[in-house]
Amino acid sequence: MLNSDDRPIIVQSDGTILLDVHSANFQDARDDISGFAELIKSPEHIHTYEISSLSLWNAASAGISPEQAIASLDKWSRFKIPENIIFKIKESGSLFGKIILLPSEFPEKYILKVTDDKIFLELLAIKKLQKYLLPLYDQSGFYISALNRGIIKQELITQGYPVRDNIPLASGDSMEISFRKTTSSGKPFSIRNYQEEAAQAFYGNNLPGNGYGTIVLACGSGKTVVGMRIMELCQTKTLILTTNIAAVHQWINELLDKTTLTRDDIGEYSGDKKEIKPVTIATYQILTWRPGKEENFPHFELFKKDNWGLVIYDEVHLLPAPVFRITAEIQAISRVGLTATLIREDGLEKNLFSLVGPKRFDCPWKILQEKGWIAQASCHEIRIELPEELKIPYATATRREKFRIASENPRKMEIIKEIIENRKDDFILIIGQYLSQLKEVKKLINVPLITGQTPNKLREEIYAKFREGKERIIIVSKVANFAIDLPDASVAIQISGSFGSRQEEAQRLGRILRPKERNSYFYSLTSRFTVEEEFSANRQKFLTEQGYEYQIETR
Question: CB of 211 within 8 A of CB of 204?
Answer without folding.
Answer: yes
